[in-house]
Amino acid sequence: MSEKTYTPGEHPDLPPPANLIGPVAWIRKNLLSTPTNIVMTVLAIWFLYEVVPAAVNWLFLDAAFTGENRDDCRAQASGACWAFISERMKLFTYGFYPIEERWRVNISFLLLIAAIVPVLFDKVPFRKFGLYFSCAFPFIAAWLLLGGYGLTPVETDKFGGFMLTLVIGVTGIAFSLPIGILLALGRQSQLPIIRVFSVSFIEFIRGVPLITLLFVASTMLNYFLPAGVTFDLLLRVLIMVTLFASAYMAEVIRGGLQAIPKGQFEAADAMGLKYWPAMRLIVLPQALKISIPSIVNTFIGLYKDTTLVIIIGLLDPLGIGRASLADTKWTGLSNEVYLFVAIFFFISCFGMARYSLYLENKLQTDHKR
Amino acid sequence: MNEATNPNPSSEDYAVVIRDMHKWYGQFHVLKDINLLVTRGEKIVVCGPSGSGKSTMIRCINRLEEHQQGHIIVDGTELTNDLKNIEVVRREVGMVFQHFNLFPHLTVLENCTLAPIWVRKMPKLEAEGIAMQYLERVKIPDQANKYPGQLSGGQQQRVAIARSLCMKPRIMLFDEPTSALDPEMIKEVLDVMIELANEGMTMLCVTHEMGFAKTVADRVIFMDGGEIIEENNPAEFFENAQHERTKLFLSQILEH
Amino acid sequence: MSEAVTPQRNVVSRLWNDKETRSVIIQIIAIVLILGFFAYIIRNAMINLEAIGKGFSFKFLTQASSYDINQHFIEYNSRSSHFRAMLVGILNTILVAFCGIVLATILGFFLGVLRLSKNWLTSKLAYVYIEYVRNVPVLLHILLVYGLIVHSLPVPKQAWGLADTAFLTNRGLFSPKPLYEPLFWVVFALFVAAVIFSLWFRRYAQKVQDDTGYHYPVFWITVGAVIGLPGIAYFLLGSPITWEIPELKGFNYKGGMVIRPEFIALWIALSGYTAASIGEIVRSGIIAVNYGQTEAAAALGISRERTLNLVVIPQALRVIVPPLTSQYLNLTKNSSLAIAIGYMDIVATIGGISLNQTGREMECMSIVLILYLILSLLISAAMNWYNRSIKLVER
Predict the structure, then answer these.
(1) Does A276 map to a domain?
(2) For the whole model, what pTM was predicted?
(3) How far apart are CA C68 and CA C349, in angstroms?
(4) Interface with chain A: mutation pick from C119, C125, C346, C353, highest number of A CBs within 10 Å
(5) Which domain range does residue C18 map to?
(6) Do A272 and B94 count as a contact with CB atoms less than 8 A apart?
(7) How many CB pairs under 8 A join A and B?
(8) What residues contact residue B241 under an 8 Å CB cut-off, 6+ apart?
């Protein structure tokens, strides 16, 4: 090191010593800084060495991508048998939806994308009209998928695969938010009876597992309808999933409501705004904005929970997969099926989680501005 | 001064009448036997130590707080459980808060037009015109499209004043409007308030700004322990306080 | 007397605009609607049940269940009543929930600490694990783990043995079963005594420390008492436990203790799933403790471990406990997915086979719902109590 001296006020910016920058310094700091750190690095590398090559082999290198049945696969390679998945791909996507009507599912899916974009991003052109379309979408999609009014009717027991997941997920998401808002407001209400009702509803739903509610839907809900009236199974499931998600949504929104300073309510009161305008114009926009990340997380939970419908006999991708395993041609390939469905869920849920993170960061900068 | 000094005002001249008013928080007696007559155009400054009930009293006037006994009549309308009356009163009474309470999700302009549009049912363009007029009077028309979070405290408080004025209120309540501000911003807010006072607005103002009280107030009220201890015109009040507690209070806040 | 000008309005308008009466009116309407709704659906249910000749009664609970349950902690066979089947189901739910909570907590704290570790590689590995687990439905995890056990573990003939005493197979884990001789109870009594002693000793040591400033090595004395004392007694008394070791007979192991694959799959999947959430909770709890706190402790010269114990953890716990409670509740509720792999819990017994055999949907489902509500209440009550106690300690 040069021991150069500078006159005060003349000291230039110098580069840091070489041992503080560069990849070697990074490795030393992040992997080898202390003895424990070294041990952990070694263990981690050993773990990766054991797992990654084996996984890659099974998934890709030793996997069979074509074949008529399980024995075909096994004859070709020792790894995964993806031929099974590709043979069943249509089933995984559409369930038993009539082949000649599947264009309706495709169109609904495209419309879904168009409906989601204005909700997700606030810099889309014509966002306002987009949002109206988003609100109308569930009903348009219901018409497209169920038929009637000019389209061939399709029974709901033909619904299945990823399409069923999306139907349940989107319905639950679309209807649980407004119901959740009402329940959250009810829980904060000054009227004791409204409050007691909201609290008992929310706590009851949150106290029992979704699967028991689905059992209620499948075994006893029709008893509660007037004689002669029955709801089909999918509708009953949709009702239960929506109610279930609304209770969780209500709690998330309540968190947002509680974060609004009392002064906001007072200012709205002092202006002479009545309850509903005050809520709609002042309180809810702020409360919802704060709770958006948690709302998205609730959506992710709801979306994952759609898999439970297989237990009462609906055929979502997991159900299709399990039914396919019963086929003697493909028996024993459960790992492939489960992994395939897991990847599907991972991609959609991870996407939503990333979006929620993006919103959270955006929210923080919003507050600073 | 103007007609506010009329020695014998008839009853419809009163902007606010508070008679034998009591208020409790549970067991705690916050306001004890409050009697106050405010004539139209009168400017009143309320002061007192913290916890003396001065904010509570002023918040009773637009029923942010309920009183349990006695009468409050604002601009000829008595405040009871009748929601229609409360609406009428709140339409005529503007309020400025210590912490501004601007709506952070709306722009300055939207903050100002919200109540005229939703409460007075005014067309949007007209409301915006009025809002711009008042924003000019508080000297921040150029900030109209910013969000409250982008403004300084003093600017925010001036927006809050403009927001209240947009409802064309007959009475303005100020609840410690300068105590949350940095010292260098207090003057810009007080200037706006003084201008407003000179235009003849009826004002009730909880504040510790004694300079403001001396220049503007027609009457200064001193509260302690939930009671009105003393009221007088500013000259008398500051020079010749009658009550021991008033003297003590004045000595404490005027010392520095 | 009042010069208030109240505008003349009709009675209805006056009543509706009075705050008190309006709130009463709204509430009466609400209660009429709610009660009306319930009355309506109950009436429908009664008509419907009558039409198919069913009543509403719990008499079936005393009838013989006539199905087998492979894991039961109380005496049970197919001649036992439905009520007893329900008890078996409750115990199985509690067992898997309890074991799951314990393992999930341990794994979760471990993951949380790994995520915060200064080691880039381990922190990223923990991150990958957490993201994978959290973004895949728990039911899928359960099925995947169960599938791995059934399809990938060896059949009993080629079992993975651990020193020829425990065997891991696709039919479960077979481990030695302890058979207690009478003298064992002496060892057990000593263990209990040692635990009580340690609890007392901690207080005593705290008092001595407060009075004199002297620090006992509390940790080592406690360990010595709880493990050492019964251990020494165990050997002095000549090892009063004999082990029944499972043996391969025919196609399966006989004797010993068996932990069934359904339980193992459920346990591992639920714990692994919940651990990911707990890991994130722990991480954010520790991050939430202001960095200034650690700096202040360091500036006072408190050691790193002590800082963690005295400053960081007490504050982090306050942030961690409430979401942790809801994770415990989630795990308990998720244990109901047991039915997908045939683990006989509450839902699978009373809400599953009993329901199908007796056709008593109403009765069975109300029992199941009420049982879960009770379980949830108990867990929240316990965690609320704990939460209060750490809050008190803090102040």
Answers:
(1) yes
(2) 0.84
(3) 10
(4) C119
(5) 2-51
(6) no
(7) 57
(8) B222, B230, B232, B247, B250
